Amino acid sequence: MDRESIKKSxxxxxxxxxxxxxxxxxxxxxADNFHVKAGQFISVLCGDYTLRRPFSVMNFENDIIxxxxxxxxxxxxxxxxxxVNDDIEFSGAFGNGFNIENKKSLIVxxxxxxxxxxxxxxxxxxxxxxxxxxxxxxxxxxxxxxxxLNMISTDDGSLGKNGSIINYLDDEIKxxxxxxxxxCGPSIVLxxxxxxxxxYNIEAxxxxxxxxxxxxxxxxxxxxxxxxxxxxxxxxxxxxxxxSEIKWQ
Length: 249
Fold this sequence. Notes:
Helices cover 17% and strands 35% of the residues. The protein has four helices and 15 strands.
């Protein structure tokens, strides 16, 4: 995806906005002639605010984009207050998506990281690729409605297994025996996933979460360090990376 992509704006229509969980909402956008892969993101124009807000795509089917967003500022407040059939402008799709391979896959998510991997699961299902998706949340009130998960954990034990999802990685790998691991979530989760991949000699592919401003690698606000000594931007070079590439702090 090159820098010219920021000029590729789409005019969509709001198809639906619903509450997903505590401070979490779904927005569905009708967008014709749009294409996106699991793991990529869009940047939404929020009224008169200069910077667009980036969001992972949670699903794309029948020209409808589904986005899961967290209410945390004026931009997301603007989106939440949109009405059905309102115009909505966005750019994208940006970044690199997941590499879909015919391998038995374990999918790991934490928090809003469940969004891009939900799209990934749908893609794997459509391609007949065996997969299992597990996800961890702060508590039961932070679990989005209408998501298809094989196992859930909550930090406070209010639903599913008790504790962080990373506590169950070893058991999941030993029991399920995946050939590939995909993940999205906070850095601590992704780091543990990558360490588990190395430990069990399983390829890990991760979608990284970072604050993004420009979405095209210009502002350098989402730079990470790679093991080869080079820097990469999550928005342009990612957000999906091979786990073996990342130099964790």
